[in-house]
Specification:
Blueprint (H helix, E strand, L loop, with lengths): L6 E4 L6 E4 L11 H7 L2 E4 L11 E2 L4 E2 L4 H12 L3 E6 L4 H10 L3 E4 L4 H12 L6 E5 L5 H6 L2 E4 L5 H6 L2 E2 L8 H12 L3 H9 L1
Parallel strand pairs: 3-6, 3-8, 6-7, 8-9, 9-10
Antiparallel strand pairs: 1-2, 2-10, 4-5
Helix pairs in contact: 1-7, 2-7
């Protein structure tokens, strides 16, 4: 955690809630804003974070619903030089297709420890854990949430992930939660206003 004591405060966006609580990480004195400034790599779970956790199964294919504003936000984040990765325990052609469309930097799908996946990624890229923001929703995300510089749970995530998070989104998974996190990162790094101005020109 960034600080001890359960504490909620509304951020400038009026859309989100910072949750602080006692934990083994309570000795960290950084504020959320300071931690967000260090982020260079945004990692997300897929089902339940980038989607609403629904999977439609047909005779020969599956379908998932992704939020379009999440996609635009991730493109904007990459445009500012940050890297984006998706980590899913469940391989899916639909996920691979969406990742390709958005030119996601890293896509890892398959069973096994997500912590090991991230550690391998960090070793190959030179990023550190404190430069990672991770967004999760379920117990399979707890190991990464515990280690990430900024741990985020979506609003409808399970109680354990919300308890482990530095920040809980106001939006549910698949309903703009990732976009919310993207904007927080870019605002903390003084990049969001420039992006808005470019589109308003």
């Amino acid at each position: 955690m960034l600080r001890s004591k359960v504490e909620s405060r509304t951020l400038a966006t009026g859309r989100a809630e910072l949750v602080r609580r006692s934990s083994p990480r309570e000795s960290r004195s950084s504020t959320l804003a300071a931690a967000l400034k260090r982020v260079r790599l945004l990692l997300c779970d897929v089902d339940g974070v980038l989607t609403d956790a629904t999977v439609l199964m047909g005779a020969d294919r599956e379908m998932k619903q992704f939020h379009i504003r999440d996609g635009l936000g991730l493109v904007a984040l990459r445009g500012q030089g940050l890297k984006v990765g998706w980590i899913s325990s469940r391989p899916s052609p639909a996920t691979a297709r969406r990742a390709k469309e958005l030119k996601i930097d890293f896509l890892k799908q398959g069973k096994g420890s997500k912590v090991r996946v991230v550690e391998s990624l960090l070793a190959n890229t030179g990023f550190r854990w404190d430069e990672v923001c991770y967004v999760g929703d379920d117990i399979v995300d707890l190991g990464v949430l515990k280690r990430a510089g900024v741990a985020v749970a979506v609003a409808d995530g399970v109680a354990e992930t919300r308890a482990a998070a530095d920040y809980v989104t106001s939006a549910d998974g698949g309903h703009g939660a990732v976009r919310e996190v993207v904007e927080l990162i870019l605002q903390a790094q003084n990049k969001w206003a420039r992006i808005v101005a470019e589109h308003a020109a």
